[in-house]
Amino acid sequence: MPEVEIRKIVTVLEEIRHEGGPPPAIPLRRAGIIAVIANPFAGRFEPEITGFMENLKPLGLDMAGRLVAMLGGDAGVVEGYGKGAVIGAAGELEHGALWHAPGGYAMRELLGDAKAIVPSAKKVGGVGARLDVPVTHINASYVRSHFDAMELGVSDAPRAGEMALMLVMTTGARIHARAGGLSAADARGGDGLR
Q1: With contact defined as beta carbons under 8 Å apart, do 87 and 123 qualify?
Q2: How far is residue 12 from each of residues 15, 93, 151, measured CA to CA in Å?
Q3: Cα separation of 46 and 101, whole Å?
Q4: C-alpha span between 22 and 6 (Å, rounded)
Q5: What is the rounded CA–CA span in Å between residue 98 and residue 2?
Q6: Closest by alpha carbon to 192, among 131, 141, 123?
Q7: Which InterPro entries match (predicted)?
Q8: Buried b vs exposed e over 108-117: b needs ≥16 C-beta within 10 Å?
Q9: pTM score of the predicted model
Q10: Which domains does the chain have, with CATH numbers?
Q11: What's the pLDDT tens digit per position in 5-60?
């Protein structure tokens, strides 16, 4: 399989201090990272593409490590995560699916084998396309307070023959979360759901 060819890496860090109610004692931080890479399958149908996932694993680990560093270097503060991909117009949606394992397992590994499936979104889009990367709790997908999304995009990507691969980590629930459901404190995390 071809090597991963990176054109650029973009990072975003949000610190949310207010959402209309009282400021929280500790602001919510959301970190996102985007790697814009060449799509080795752009412009043609390639029946066997799964081997490229192995090539993407080091990139996934690097990106996940950068997110932890952006959030202060302690993986223990991370409570939510998600992943996504925008594929340039010369590619196909299935090329974005190649990011599922390398992106998801990288974050789970760095966060101490987090139990919940890493939520994902992908689409084919043009230059400047943005994606709402879904977020859930790292150990229990049913923790409603952590259902969130972080919009990511790059002004000059993905070009037709590129992919924009994305990871997101957060330090907690939505500010003023009060829609009920399973709380993070009550989650057991054994099955990744509850």
Answers
A1: yes
A2: 10, 25, 10
A3: 19
A4: 42
A5: 13
A6: 141
A7: AA_synth_put, BB2672
A8: bebbeebbbe
A9: 0.96
A10: 6-17+25-186 (3.30.1330.110)
A11: 999 999 999 999 988 889 999 999 999 999 999 999 999 999 999 999 999 999 99
Q: Is 95 helix (H, G, I), strand (E, B) or coil?
A: helix
Separation CA 21–CA 9 (nearest Å): 35
Closest to 166 (Cα-Cα) out of 115, 111, 114, 102:
102
CA dist 10 and 20 (Å) reads 29
Stretch 85-93: mean pLDDT: 98
User: What string of H, E and C letters represents the secondary structure of 59-91?
Assistant: HHHHHHHHHHHHCCCCHHHCCEEEEEEEECCCC
Other CB atoms within a 10 A radius of the CB of residue 156 amount to 11
With tokens 């400047």, the residue in question is: 128
| Model pLDDT, residue 161 | 98
Q: How far apart are CA 43 and CA 132, in angstroms?
A: 26
> For residue 43, what are its two tokens?
């412009």
What is the C-alpha to C-alpha distance for residues 45 and 146, in angstroms, rounded to an integer?
Answer: 38
Q: Provide the pairing of β-strand 28-38 with 6-16.
A: antiparallel
Does residue 140 contact residue 116 with C-beta atoms inside 8 Å?
yes
Q: Please report the pLDDT score of residue 186 as a whole number.
A: 85
Cβ atoms within 10 A of the Cβ of 103, count? 29
Closest by Cα among 25, 22, 14 to 176? 22
- From the CB of residue 171, how many other CB atoms can be counted at a distance below 10 Å? 19
